[in-house]
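Quick question, first post here. What does this chain look like in 3D?
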Amino acid sequence: MSAIDETAKIDIYLGKKIRLMRISRGLRQKHVAEAIGVSFQQLQKYENGTNHIRANRLYALAVFFRVDPSYFFEGLEQEGESALPFEELLKKAETEKLIKYFNNAANDNVREKILNMVKIAAK
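> Answer (accepted):
Ran it through. Tokens below.
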């Protein structure tokens, strides 16, 4: 794989992670874009992996979402190994609802119980 192909793969993966974080927080592209100083169209291009995101913008997103910048790279090595590709999961309405409900859970203890319940149901 060429360096250009690898860069495109990373851009697409970062975009997926940005979109997942935005959806999980129940935010519109316009709101996130304004917070980091870009147009909503630019954020849309980041989320689609169409445009390369610079380090300073990625850092601004990490600050805005209150996550470590490494969040955006977690799981990059395993991308493509799952039975259902990441982007297909995000297209499902149920996934968006699940993420929102999970994020709105009362506390970490409740979220841990939800994870255990899902783990049992998935067996």
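The domain at 3-81 is CATH 1.10.260.40 (434 Repressor (Amino-terminal Domain)).
Residues 3-24 form the longest helix (22 residues).
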